[in-house]
Amino acid sequence: MPEPARSRAVLSNEDFELLREAVAHYLTVIADKPESIKFSRLYHRLGSAMPK
């Protein structure tokens, strides 16, 4: 029985940086709206997912 194919990362480190930058910009646009809390949490999760 053949071994299963090795999984690959879907997003690169650069992708995480770009997404975090985009979310940071969007946070300034929606700063006074309730959904800004969710985006703020996403921003921090993206930061912790990036390698140091």
Report strand %. Answer: under 5%
From the structure provided, what is the oligomeric state, counting identical versus distinct chains? Answer: single chain
| Uncertain stretches of 5 or more adjacent residues | none
User: How widely separated are the two ends?
Assistant: 39 Å
Radius of gyration: 16 Å
Could you characterize what this model shows?
Helices cover 60% and strands 0% of the residues. The chain has one domain (13-49). The N and C termini lie far apart (39 Å). Helix 1 runs antiparallel to helix 2 (36-49). It is mostly helical and 52 residues long. The chain is elongated and about 55 Å long.
Ordered list of secondary-structure elements with their pairings:
Layout: H1 13-29, H2 36-49
